[in-house]
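Q: What does the assembly look like in three dimensions?
Context provided by user:
Components: two
Sequences:
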Amino acid sequence: MAGLPPLNEEDMRTLDAALDELLRRSDAEAALVIDKGGPLISQRGAAGKFDSTTVAALAAGAFSATDMMARHLGETSLAHIYQQGRQVSLLISNVDENLLLITVFPAALGVGTVKYYAADAVARMAAQMEKAAQRDPGAGLDLVSLNTLDVSEVFRKRQ
Amino acid sequence: MAIINQATKELQLKIVYYGPGKGGKTTNLEQVHANIGNVQEKGKLVSLATSSDRTLFFDFLPIEAMAIKGFKTKFQLYTVPGQVIYNTTRQLVLRGVDGIVFVADSQYEKMAENVESFQNLDDNLKALKLNIADIPYVMQYNKRDLPAAAPVDYMEFLLNNREVQVPSYTSVASKCEGVFEALNMITRMLLNKYINEGARKAA
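A: Here is the predicted structure of the complete assembly.
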């Protein structure tokens, strides 16, 4: 597992544009792109209305668990998982080895519509991540100027 | 693996609390959640537990630390379910791990479970094509207040006796003793790892 390559401004612009386009075309409420390990990468739409960090962690867990379950049943590929609600539904789509796309949409909107437009967003994001991985797979955040003494007590207990 | 976002100058790190069942992993997160005093933003502590309060999938606590020289550092703290039957779940939670706090139960009768759990960690990392020697981790010897607690030297011999000894801490997680010490050390080790990697690339 190579892990997510470092993301630059071009990557973020492309991811955000793919999410915006998905929302515009599908009438979904919110779209999030997350790492399969749980962290949230970006969010658009009404994602601010809910705790998107927690939703991202839970979605990553749900997708991993379903993927593992599918493998136990002899299925090697899991493209989407869909949770149908009364008010709000959720589609989690596999982007590539590292990313997932979460689309939150009104339950009245058919999942077929969302899945159709999500496929375009997935393709666009996967292509950009491929480009990012080719760019410099080893590039990291330059923390050389950071004084390690500053990080000796990042978390302080309340007195 | 850490999420590095150069566009937003953001570093996201995943720390997993691992160890045998009922060793105090969830208590560590509860104490961090209840007692942390200097963070930008603290999320909700989410627990996916059974009706008898045993961890079923994971506990999750997101924390955004103070910006360090302009770098926003976000930490995601997870626990794994300690019970032996949930091994598949432990593997899922380890995905994308950056650092580990191994929470061992200090009671003599729990030593075999501690050793087995550490071996299980090693096996699960290998299943994810990761090597324990490449991942920063610290040992936390919990429940030091119990009368049947084994001597620390004995626990070091059993659990921290590899080529490179890692930092170890005694704790009473239920009283928040030793909790922040272990968390700060693993954080420091993780940030140092990225500083050193940055220095190597700059050279």
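Follow-up: The mean pLDDT of chain A is 90.
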